[in-house]
Automatic annotation (TrEMBL):
<dbReference type="GO" id="GO:0003700">
    <property type="term" value="F:DNA-binding transcription factor activity"/>
</dbReference>
<dbReference type="InterPro" id="IPR036390">
    <property type="entry name" value="WH_DNA-bd_sf"/>
</dbReference>
<keyword id="KW-0805">Transcription regulation</keyword>
<dbReference type="Pfam" id="PF03466">
    <property type="entry name" value="LysR_substrate"/>
</dbReference>
<comment type="similarity">
    <text>Belongs to the LysR transcriptional regulatory family.</text>
</comment>
<dbReference type="InterPro" id="IPR005119">
    <property type="entry name" value="LysR_subst-bd"/>
</dbReference>
<dbReference type="Pfam" id="PF00126">
    <property type="entry name" value="HTH_1"/>
</dbReference>
<dbReference type="GO" id="GO:0000976">
    <property type="term" value="F:transcription cis-regulatory region binding"/>
</dbReference>
<keyword id="KW-0238">DNA-binding</keyword>
<feature type="domain" description="HTH lysR-type">
    <location>
        <begin position="17"/>
        <end position="74"/>
    </location>
</feature>
<dbReference type="InterPro" id="IPR000847">
    <property type="entry name" value="LysR_HTH_N"/>
</dbReference>
<keyword id="KW-0804">Transcription</keyword>
<protein>
    <submittedName>
        <fullName>LysR family transcriptional regulator</fullName>
    </submittedName>
</protein>
<dbReference type="InterPro" id="IPR036388">
    <property type="entry name" value="WH-like_DNA-bd_sf"/>
</dbReference>
Length: 307
């Protein structure tokens, strides 16, 4: 079942508004860019602009100030934004409740938004069945420009990322920190790190950008979001790679990889879990248990690294 229209009564009369138009408005308000929303939602820019103009015409107000730098909400637009957020959430909840399967098993959708955040799940995935008993677990890795929309519009139940997601309707909690470190597959013959061919595990996050600033004089010859590609690369002699410490702990312990001591290239990054405030108490309790398990994984790796 789909709810395509809702009706608002003004002093001047009634306005029939599409949910899709309100969603377009909300997404553009969040990203402040028509082109980004056009790419994300797979709608042409002219069609998106037409939807926004039609919404302004229906309401009889200007919602955006447009410029070469993007769009900004007007005062009237800010009022609609606050209501749009509530309306879209209620609409998504309505559709979810109507279409909810009566089966015993439900599904928890976990989205991992950064390559670096993926590796924390390796140590806890075997215990997830006992934490989320009688619940199907779906884990997806995707790069999403609008992180808030994933949760607010019910496209995910829990998000793991390298940054805090700030929103009044969401709970974003710090899990812990890890480090990007420089590793190699054996002894290095280069006298200077600057001449060393280096591979970078890249996830387009601020962490990587910060690393690149620190590595401005280093020969970065490979960037990939695949750890397997990095490990294959490290089988070559006299090369190194920058990777999350947690992703190569087993190889460091076994001696398959060696940590290259270089203070300039150790960069810490934080990990967070985020979920909606309005979830039921039982699910929130399970998320708290899951968070503790993730914290224990990070704490264990930190202790092992020191030892």
């Amino acid at each position: 079942m789909k709810v395509s229209y809702f009706q608002i009564r003004f002093k001047k009369g009634k306005v029939n508004m599409r949910i899709s138009s309100l969603k377009y408005f909300y997404e553009v308000s969040e990203l402040k860019s028509i082109s980004k929303v056009s790419n994300n939602l797979h709608i042409s820019q002219p069609a998106l602009s037409h939807q926004l103009s039609k919404l302004e015409k229906e309401l009889g107000v200007k919602l955006f100030d447009r410029s070469n730098k993007g769009v900004e909400l007007t005062n009237k637009g800010k009022i609609l934004y606050d209501y749009a957020k509530q309306i879209l959430t209620l609409h998504d909840n309505l559709i979810e409740d109507i279409n909810e399967d009566d089966c015993k098993n439900k599904e928890i959708r976990i989205n991992v938004l950064n390559t670096h955040a993926n590796f924390i799940l390796d140590g806890v995935v075997r215990d997830m069945g006992s934490i989320f008993k009688n619940i199907n677990i779906s884990i997806n890795s995707q790069k999403e420009v609008n992180k808030k929309a994933l949760l607010i519009h019910n496209r995910a139940d829990l998000v793991i990322s390298c940054s805090n997601i700030d929103d009044a309707d969401l709970i974003s909690e710090y899990i812990g920190s890890d480090k990007l470190i420089l590793v190699s597959g054996g002894c290095l013959e280069c006298n200077s790190i600057e001449r060393l061919p280096v591979a970078l595990l890249d996830d387009d996050s601020n962490t990587v950008l910060k690393t690149l600033e620190n590595m401005s004089k280093v020969n970065v010859c490979l960037k990939t979001d695949s750890l397997d590609v990095i490990k294959s690369y490290l089988k070559k002699q006299n090369v190194a790679a920058v990777v999350p410490r947690i992703s190569v702990e087993k190889e460091l312990k076994s001696g398959k990889l060696m940590r290259v001591c270089s203070k300039g290239y150790d960069v810490s990054y934080d990990l967070f879990i985020t979920y909606r405030k309005d979830i039921d108490a039982n699910l929130k309790k399970k998320f708290k248990i899951f968070k503790k398990e993730l914290e224990s994984i990070l704490n264990k790796e930190c202790i092992d690294a020191v030892v």
